Amino acid sequence: MRAVKGESAMKKTKSLSKTAMKRRTFLRGVLATGAAVSVGVPILDTMLDENGVAFAGGEPLPVRFGVWFWGNGVRPERWTPSGAVDWTPSEELAPLATAGVKPWVSVVTGCEIKTATHPHHSGMAGIMTGAHFHQNGNTRDTIVSTFAYPSVDQIAAAHFEGMAPFRSLEFGITRFRGTDEGTSFQHLSHNGPNNPNPSEYSPSRMYARLFGAPVDAQIDLARQSVLDAVGQQIRALQPRVSRADRVRLEQHFDSVRALEMRLAAGASTCTPPENPGDFPDVGGREPIADQNRAMSDLCALALACDLTRSFSMFFSTAGSGVIMWPVGASNGLHQINHDEGPPHDTVHAATVFTMEQLGYFLARLRDTPDAAGSNVLDNCSILATSELSEGWTHSNREFPILVCGRGGGALRGNVHHRVDRESTSIAVLTALRGAGIPAESFGVDESYTYNGSSVFSPGRATTAYGELLAG
Q1: What is the domain partition of the chain in residue ranges?
Q2: How far is CA 156 from CA 190, 220, 298, in A?
Q3: Rounded distance, CA 384 to CA 313, Å?
Q4: If pLDDT is split at 50, 70 and 90, which confidence band does 54 have?
Q5: Structure confidence by residue, pLDDT tens digits, 9-46
Q6: 36 and 284 in contact (C-beta within 8 Å)?
Q7: Residue 331: enclosing H or E segment and its boundaries?
Q8: Range 64-202+283-293+303-471 has CATH code 3.40.720
Q9: pLDDT at 14 (0 to 100)
């Protein structure tokens, strides 16, 4: 009986601890400069119910939706994997296996943009909104366009409205190097026509936005850590949580500190720095991998702290002119797609490099602890895609689509699903439903996809891909 009473007492104490710890806890302090800062706390066991499957107040554990986008497509013949369940990686998907994230990644091949009339513009609007682009006008030998509808990340943001401090977060990696072809080329996230949510390309400014730290050329982040400002609260928090939670907190704060050091190291290379903590060009070259690591780390921290449920990672823009110097390129990628003939080795190498960066991002989420013994990638549904199939022909067929994460158990992962010229909207709808978003449809006109009874001709797929969804 004593053992039973002791166990009951332990449960009561644990329950009281959970009641005392809010599901969204911030440690707040002041730097020596007088600037106020705050550090989010990850989801801890003490915030959960006794079964560890929901917050103590009954709210479900967070599942997040994201988009990871790169421009100019792939080389389809070197992209498409073989097999179905536990697919065998192709050359261009091999980096995801190397990064150890393949079990969380499903591949959809054979889809196409059904609203295609102008390759880059149609692909961008088609995959992100399931609709035709809205044309604002003409310029030179091309057009100026924007999105006619909200982008898919903002559909998710509307569903998650009020569940996290930030409605959505937009991270930028390689800079926009395009021309005056409208918001479709320059931005990923849109609220509607000519109303984009610009991506943030400065790690230090994103850091300041998330943690309240100032962006100032005179502040050395390596010495004036936000963790120093909240040190007393960290010490007070430790006795209130379990041993497992203490380990999780230590990992979380170590990640914050490591990120501060990385941003500070980046600042020291500026001569002089435009924004301390950012990664300026070196010899005219963008520090692509460094920028990707910093923004990936920031995104992982933001998700772990439940600062947002909807995000986008804009690795490169539609028709991107980024110079992929790490693979030996000396010209912009968009132009290389036009100029380089078969076997397109530079374009292929650029795609492999891009997938290495996606691999880092997914691995960072996988290595970030989340609630109930899971990791952040377990509780995400991420649509990774481009605006073209490939840049040589500017085709919108054989579209590259990955659905990454486990969606809190809603997604199977590690599946290759091959279709025959079906709409990309079906894959997008699948990713939305993988995040627990009860969307019944996605897209309009030729791209319209309805999750239910078919209203189209027999044989035309109109439901989310059950092969990718669990249960």
Answers
A1: 64-202+283-293+303-471
A2: 12, 37, 20
A3: 9
A4: low
A5: 334 333 334 344 565 555 566 555 555 655 555 666 66
A6: no
A7: none
A8: yes
A9: 39
